[in-house]
Design a protein that fits this description.
Blueprint: E1 9-10, H1 16-25, H2 31-41, H3 56-65, E2 66-67, E3 75-78, E4 84-89, E5 95-103, E6 106-110, E7 114-116, H4 125-129, E8 131-134, H5 137-145, E9 155-158, H6 168-179, E10 191-195, H7 199-208, E11 212-216, H8 222-228, H9 237-244, E12 266-272, H10 280-290, E13 296-301, H11 315-327, E14 331-334, H12 348-358
Parallel strand pairs: 1-2, 6-9, 9-10, 10-11, 11-12, 12-13, 13-14
Antiparallel strand pairs: 3-4, 4-5, 5-6, 7-8
Helix pairs in contact: 1-2, 5-6, 10-11
Length: 359
């Protein structure tokens, strides 16, 4: 029977028009599409067999060519601080990671959007892994759908493996499922998508979604950023910021007194590397770069990955940067480190699993 598994298409991730096309093709009544959507996105059915208000014949017909498209995690590592790193297997047989981070009333899931990544950032384990494949919409959503703690989730961040706007179509489709009335019905404020600044995808996201945005910055100096993040050469941070200035998280000005709802949050991620990007000169350059943008900066401690010369900055450096930026009008926080004992930073678990599969 397993030989037929790959031929069956995932229903998870399909929007109402796609589900209508499925029912039309199978000769099922139109209303069946709505029933399937409800079973998927409200009831979280694990199988077509569970969809009991579909006739037995309809379920049988559906099962021949389709499946829900969900699959349980194949591995989990638990941290002493409650963080859990899950390993999922995709429909195509690759491995990806998601990290569940409980924090008091909040519980955040960090999801992946690709297998590996093309961006090649020098400080990132997934970048070392190289790029293998795009995640299908069902693979992106399955990380939430099949999460053991799904009902406790308050937030989802697209900050796992891969660059979301290098897989724009599938990421946007998954955001539609998460935020639509016919889907999970979440507020877009519960979701943040992170990017290094891939412009075409970023522009579509800004136009088609209301979710929060986080931009990986890591240095305000273009030459230095290009060393840390080769993608700077293709997508200069200055051009990314020029694009962001045309959207409504910019501060109100006399010429645009109340334009937009100002509900979408814009943040910049800044990993602090000791002796590299951690001086007040860098902070001044950052203030010039972000001047006039209504945004926040998240300073992130660097936890070394194997075979890198980069290292983290001392706590007093982190505090000095935070206080300096905040006192100059840019709200800045230091992100709490989580899951260090399980290497919660992306890429380590799936890299090992991927390599084991090749031997």
């Amino acid at each position: 029977m397993n030989n037929h598994e790959p031929q069956r298409q995932a229903l998870l991730g399909m929007a109402p028009p796609e589900l209508l096309a499925v029912t039309a093709r199978l000769g099922l009544p139109k209303f069946t599409a709505g029933q399937i959507a409800r079973w998927l996105y409200v009831n979280h059915a694990d199988s077509i067999e569970e969809m009991t208000n579909l006739s037995k014949a309809a379920r049988q017909r559906l099962s021949e060519e389709y499946e829900v498209g969900n699959s349980e995690p194949v591995d989990a590592q638990r941290s002493t601080d409650g963080t859990v790193k899950y390993l999922f297997r995709t429909k195509a047989g690759d491995y990806i990671e998601s990290v569940y981070i409980p924090d008091g009333e909040r519980a955040t899931l960090c999801v992946s959007s690709q297998v590996g990544c093309k961006m090649g950032c020098t400080f990132c384990m997934t970048g070392r892994q190289g790029y293998s494949a795009q995640l299908a919409v069902s693979d992106i959503l399955n990380q939430i759908y099949s999460l053991p703690e799904r009902d406790r989730l308050t937030n989802v961040v697209f900050m796992g493996q891969g660059e979301p706007f290098d897989n724009t179509e599938n990421v946007l489709a998954s955001l539609r499922v998460l935020t639509s009335d016919w889907g999970f019905g979440w507020s877009p404020k519960r979701i943040t998508v992170s990017t290094v600044g891939v412009t075409a995808g970023l522009k579509r996201f800004l136009d088609e979604s209301r979710c929060h945005l986080a931009v990986s910055l890591h240095s305000p100096d273009p030459q230095q950023r290009a060393v840390l993040m080769p993608i700077e050469r293709a997508y200069p941070i200055e051009k990314t910021i020029a694009l962001l200035r045309t959207y409504d998280f910019c501060r109100r000005t006399p010429s645009r007194p109340a334009e937009g709802t100002h509900q979408r949050r814009l943040s910049f991620e800044y990993i602090v590397f000791g002796g590299v990007n951690d001086t007040l000169r860098h902070a001044d350059a950052l203030l010039r770069l972000l001047h006039g943008l209504d945004c926040r900066v998240n300073l992130i401690r660097f936890h070394p990955i194997p075979a890198t010369s980069l290292h983290g900055a001392p706590e007093e450096t982190m505090l000095r940067l935070r206080d300096y930026l905040t006192s100059h009008g840019v709200f800045t926080t230091i992100r709490a480190s989580r899951g260090q004992d399980i290497y919660a930073a992306c890429g380590l678990l799936s890299t090992a699993k991927q390599q084991a599969g090749h031997h």
